[in-house]
Amino acid sequence: MNDSSARDKWSGRMAFVMAAAASAVGLGNIWRFPYLAAKYGGGIFLFVYVALAVTIGFTLMTVEIAIGRRTKLSPLDAYKSIAPKWQIIGWLGMAVPALIIAYYSVIGGWIVKFLAFYAKRLLEASPCPVTVAESKALFSDFTGGGSLQPLACSAVFAFCTAVLVLLGVRRGIEKSNKIAMPLLLVLCVAVAAMSLCQPGAAEGLAYYLKPDFSKFSWKTVVWALGQMFFSLSLAMGIMVTYGSYMRKEDSIPKCVFRIEFFDALVAFLAGLMIIPPVFTFLGEEGLKSEGPGLMFISLPGVFGKMTLFGASIGDVAGLLFFALAFFAALTSSVSIMETVVSSLRDRLGLGRTAAGMIVTIYMFVTLVPNSLCFANGGVFSCEILPGMRLLDFCDFAANNIFMPLCAFLTCVFAGWCIGPNWIVREIGIREGRFRLARPFAFMVKYAAPAAIALIFTFYILKELKIVEM
Ligand code: PHE
């Protein structure tokens, strides 16, 4: 169905790198990486993370991009076109973004709410800084108070995502990344600088960066691996889709290293923003929260305590922080929507607008239960499995089941079905000779599938409460 000559194309190498990096840099970098680093050995976690990214992460990302570029198809059809029996990988690769879309806008909506909250405080020049108790009340009233506000905020976020995707690869995704990504970096540096100016920052910094071997164990490796897959947007069909828009003259390995560098840089900066002030104002206890608890409850309270030359800078820091979180989340959200849209286009031969509208409707429809079911006091209080709301279920199914399964099958497919040389040849179009061909073959055939099987096993054992993680 696909007319490859009419396929969208990035305007250049940097456009591709920026788009893939924009997908990679997301909430995972902000609300999870610093927490994991603090918990699993500080500097040693950073080291393990980078080592895994340049080996296993590099391998899987290269495979996905090469498959996309060679077939010029998005995941659903890319695997099918190479080996029809393996099209299950395409379905898995498509299921992950389809499930994530269903709840990502909900979290995006919370960011919109906090952004508006800080903007209003700054406009009104609110005199009393936000405390942890206040942010806790704000967050739980907002998400669980039974009002339609979370739905409205999520709709704003979903609308922004849909507009960028409907505008297309060059006019929407590329153009917005050109603004969002440099801005995101500047905001990261600005908030990190504010954090590092606070009293006690040196101790917090040491806590973050000093390798603590007493906290190093197999768990460090398992968590770093899981974080790396999620953070690099692997096994979500995204890299196949974005690879399918890539020009033949660009070097895949060079692009992959750049994407990884950018992703690790933002994760590292997020640690600088978060760990020192949380350590100073809330102590080690404060570093035990992650995810929404860290972002929407602890951090606003911590920002509230920040001062510069005696004046409170909490609201400025809060506004900048939620602005950067907004850009990080929006560009990731765009990448998952684009993946689903692109797959629909390839499979059904639809135009961008038609496929985009279908996915937009799906996004809005799934947003309603996910947004309103969030807290038990919400408009509906629904658990679809004991102790698991719809949002948690989508998250669990996407990240703990489909993603590792898709990653594992992708490696087996590349390593044993088509063989590493298939990928190496695609890389060689630009490179001439791929110097890392031998280690790459080893990684794709043995190391990467083994590592993925390991994290999948741990996810299952953790869920069954057989191991404590
Ligand atoms: N890489 C993203 C992150 O770190 C993961 C992601 C990508 C999530 C796309 C959703 C959509 O948050």
Explain what this protein looks like in three dimensions.
- With 469 residues, the chain is an all-alpha fold.
- It has one domain: Up-down Bundle (Amino acid/polyamine transporter I), CATH 1.20.1740.
- 77% of the residues lie in helices and 1% in strands.
- The chain contains 18 helices and two strands.
- A two-stranded antiparallel sheet has the order 1-2.
- Strand 1 and strand 2 form a beta hairpin.
- Helix 5 (87-124) crosses helix 7 (149-167) and helix 5 (87-124) packs across helix 15 (352-372).
- It is globular, with a radius of gyration of 22 Å.
- The termini are far apart.
- The structure holds phenylalanine.
Mean pLDDT: 92
Q: Calculate the terminal CA-CA distance, rounded to whole Å.
A: 46 Å
**Widest sheet, order of strands:** 1-2
**Beta-strand residue fraction:** under 5%
Task: Give me some keywords for this one.
mainly alpha; Amino acid/polyamine transporter I
Short summary:
The protein is mostly helical.
Provide the fold topology.
Blueprint: H1 13-24, H2 27-39, H3 43-71, H4 75-82, H5 87-124, H6 132-144, H7 149-167, H8 169-196, H9 201-209, H10 218-231, H11 238-244, H12 252-286, H13 291-304, E1 307-308, E2 311-312, H14 314-348, H15 352-372, H16 390-417, H17 420-431, H18 437-463
Antiparallel strand pairs: 1-2
The structure holds phenylalanine.
The site of phenylalanine has 14 residues, from helix 1, helix 2, helix 5, helix 10 and helix 14.
